[in-house]
Design a protein that fits this description.
This protein is an alpha+beta fold. It has two domains: 57 residues, no CATH class; 123 residues, Immunoglobulins (Immunoglobulin-like, Sandwich). It contains two helices and nine strands; from the N terminus they run ααβββββββββ. The strands form two sheets. Strands 3, 4, 5, 7 and 8 form a five-stranded antiparallel beta sheet that branches. Strands 6-2-1-9 form a four-stranded mixed beta sheet, with no helix packed on it. Strand 3 and strand 4 form a beta hairpin.
């Protein structure tokens, strides 16, 4: 600190001696080094933030958008059909590793009953949302998933709520809450 004060006094002093010029010439590279280090610190900070953004973009990120949801009641039970658009909003490919529906019924006595149901279609024949469905980077696919429940169809007083749960190859779990708005006839 004393050196800086002395240097500032020498700068303000108009009568420079030979020793002062030598001292200032010795400090000049230090000031240049300080400026260069500040510039390099700013550049490295910006590059760090850019690399963080790129890393976030490279992490798999599936988004699920609901298009339509309905149920069909038949003599065998309830069939749930959910049509979604699934998009991969990242720079890496991703694969579906799990599909389940969490169906919540409200019973006549007011209690809620939740069931985890696997899809009726287990193979990808067309546009079914199933295990093994691959999404390339920045790809969107319209998918339909079908779930079947045999019991509880006759006890249904109001339409159930359904949460579609999808897990991907990284282990991340994505949820899409679905409101069943219509019941259709066969």
């Amino acid at each position: 600190m004393e050196i800086i004060v002395e240097m500032m006094q020498n700068v303000l002093d108009l009568s420079f001696s030979k020793e002062n010029w030598i001292a200032m010439a010795g400090n000049f590279p230090a000031w240049i080094a300080l400026v260069i280090s500040l510039i390099s610190m700013t550049i490295s900070r910006k590059s760090y933030h850019l690399s963080e953004k790129k890393e976030r973009r490279s992490l798999p990120d599936l988004s699920i958008y609901l298009e339509d949801a309905y149920i069909i009641k038949d003599e065998k039970g309830l069939n749930f059909f959910i049509k979604n658009v699934v998009t991969n909003r990242s720079d890496t490919a991703n694969t579906i590793c799990g599909v389940e529906a969490i169906i919540t019924f409200v019973q006549p006595n007011g209690y809620e009953l939740r069931r985890r149901v696997r899809p009726s279609f287990s193979e990808n024949d067309g546009n079914n949302l199933c295990i093994g469905l691959r999404f390339n980077p920045w790809e969107a696919k319209a998918c339909i998933s079908s779930f079947h429940l045999e019991e509880l169809a006759s006890k249904l007083k109001r339409l159930p709520s359904v949460v579609l749960e999808i897990s991907d190859s990284t282990g991340a779990v994505y949820n899409c809450k679905t409101e069943i708005v219509s019941e259709r006839n066969v």
